[in-house]
Amino acid sequence: MTDADDSEDTRISQSGGVPWRDLHVSETHRPPERDVEITGIRSMAVAGNFTWGIVRIDTNTDHYGIGETHRAPRGLLEFAEGLEHDLVGENPLDVDRLTELFNQSYTNCGRIGQGAWTGIEMALWDLKGKLLDVPVYELLGGKYRDRVRIYNDTHAGEGLGKAEAGSGDPREIYTPESYARAAREVVEEGFEALKFDLDVYTDPTVDTAARRLDNEAIAHKVSLVEAVREEIGYDVDLGVDLHWNFTVETAVRLARKLEPYDLAWIEDPVHPEKLEAQRQVRERTTTPILTGEQIHGTGDFKALLDEELLDIAAPDVTHCGGLRVMREVATLCDLHGVPVAPHNVSSPLGTVAGAHVAASIPNHLCMEYHAREIPWWDDMVDRTGGSGPILEDGYVDLPEGPGLGVELDPEVVERHLVEGHESIV
Length: 425
Prior knowledge:
Layout: H1 3-15, E1 38-47, E2 51-59, E3 64-68, H2 76-82, H3 84-87, H4 95-105, H5 110-132, H6 136-139, E4 147-153, H7 170-173, H8 176-188, E5 193-197, H9 215-232, E6 237-241, H10 248-258, E7 265-267, H11 275-283, E8 289-291, H12 299-306, E9 312-313, H13 323-335, H14 348-359, E10 367-369, E11 381-383, E12 391-392, E13 395-397, E14 406-408, H15 410-415
Parallel strand pairs: 4-5, 4-10, 5-6, 6-7, 7-8, 8-9
Antiparallel strand pairs: 1-2, 2-3, 4-13, 11-14, 12-13
Helix pairs in contact: 2-5, 8-9, 9-10, 10-11, 13-14
């Protein structure tokens, strides 16, 4: 066996896949105008309100691509850099072929591997746009809109960690007044849509392990929503997030009590994998049910759509499988008359990637923004071929530069690197 054979055999055995189709492209089939190769993969982690994993793909040209992973749990960025062994020498223009090569070769990689590939895939789209000198949305079929509507995740009126940090009675922290005040501030900043977490720990007497709420706890949560509606009225879209923390019985009781407040959605009252629980909640409330942030690939979204269990889909471009998968999910949803409100806890890099997809689909409702408390969030990237903030007045103005249309700001990145990481900018 030659050294090359040893290398290939190692790749296959580590991946857990059996490459029965040869998805590599030989040099004899590569026209000169497409003669570009991947030469390396690097990564780093930036400390925002979440850890933002950033991946960079270098080539034998002056062009490179950048992408973002879904947070950066231990091992994910190492997995991404390990894919260099498979991708060096490959043509980065072939995004779909390389995605299929990954899926075929890494069948048992789990969420860490899938998350790593999502960052790689985003970087490939950015690189392809730069090589062809077009924005990513053009590669996705063009755009329906120049501005992408955003909704603000307003958390719980106050910081989510206050009660856990022992700052006092949670019912004196997460109050109707704090929710109403935060809602007013967000609307005054130009947002036309927002959501609140409604599963925050507010009653020390409730057995949270049982996933049930008593009447007093439900009444308190209803009072939070009532205060928000009284403050901002009914012309602003308002959603609430339950983070699949309750039983069907509690979720239904709470949902029915909230119906008079005309919510745009209730997010994840139960886990989306529990199809029968999802069905019971959806059939017993008039409020639309939103889910999808934890779903990877199109299959589970298709199952929810086929069973008529999904009112609003929330794929995350850094988690669902990348830009291509997010667009596939949106197309499936459109066939069923279901709008898309993408989940997003990303840096401005991942947010812009999601905005390119959102601009390219007809059924976009609004995309999440989860970093209002990070004052340097917008400073982390600079537009290419333009200027101005990424997010303004509740909208992302779609970048028009090649690729994703943004580049990382080296000084901002350097100041906020996770300890032990080096900048790749």
